[in-house]
Design goal:
29% helix, 2 domains, 4 helices, Protein Transport Mog1p, Chain A, 203 residues, globular, 8-stranded antiparallel beta sheet, alpha+beta
């Protein structure tokens, strides 16, 4: 009699606990499924980035300090690199270095008193870095009585701005140099032309 009672009790107990184990298994399966569903799938291949068409920038900005002016895009502001590198030696009328950048362009300008030569080519050597490579030959022009030299460049300074250009010219007693990094080669000449069209200096 005891044996029957014990067997019956065990049978009832196992019958009662079976659904509970089943529920736990179901909960575990649901949790695993939810976890798997929440794991991010591999990102879709990025869409091709549309690059700007030539001359996409509006150079309505005008930088005017140190007794000269130069055009630039309105969403860029030049800052004094000389002062940042050495606060005790900011840019002045006689020499300086400024730069401006946004996500699409980098521009740099430098100037110094002319060392007694009308040829500004030495300024290209000063403004071009080791990461800059000249492409082609120098384009020499006389623009508004200023000898201007211009050359396209490529650069490894930034993977998103691999193209560029550089120029140098003499104005009054000072010689100037300008450099640009851009996402494409086709717009560099137009950007320089537009920026330089607004250049003037006190002579």
């Amino acid at each position: 009699m005891r044996f029957r009672f014990f067997f019956l009790f065990t049978l009832i107990l196992s019958a009662c606990t079976f659904p509970s184990n089943s529920n736990k298994d179901l909960q575990v399966q649901q949790a695993v499924a939810a976890t798997l569903a929440s794991i991010p799938t591999s990102a879709p291949a990025p869409l091709s980035t549309p690059y700007p068409t030539p001359t996409p920038f509006d150079l309505k900005g005008l930088f005017c300090e140190y007794q000269f002016c130069m055009g630039h895009p309105v969403d860029m502001a030049f800052f004094d690199v000389s002062a940042q590198n050495n606060p005790a030696s900011p840019s002045t009328y006689s020499q300086g270095l400024i730069a401006a950048f946004n996500g699409n362009l980098f521009m740099q300008m430098m100037w110094q008193l002319s060392p007694g030569t009308a040829d500004p080519q030495f300024m290209l050597d000063l403004i071009l870095d080791d990461v800059d490579i000249r492409v082609g030959t120098l384009d020499v022009k006389l623009i508004r009585d200023m000898n201007v030299i211009y050359i396209p460049i490529t650069s490894t300074a930034s993977p998103i701005l691999p193209f560029g250009a550089s120029a140098a010219w003499t104005c009054g007693e000072r010689v100037f140099a300008w450099k640009l990094y851009s996402p494409q080669a086709e717009n560099t000449q137009a950007l320089f032309d537009e920026a330089f069209n607004r250049f003037n200096c006190n002579r």
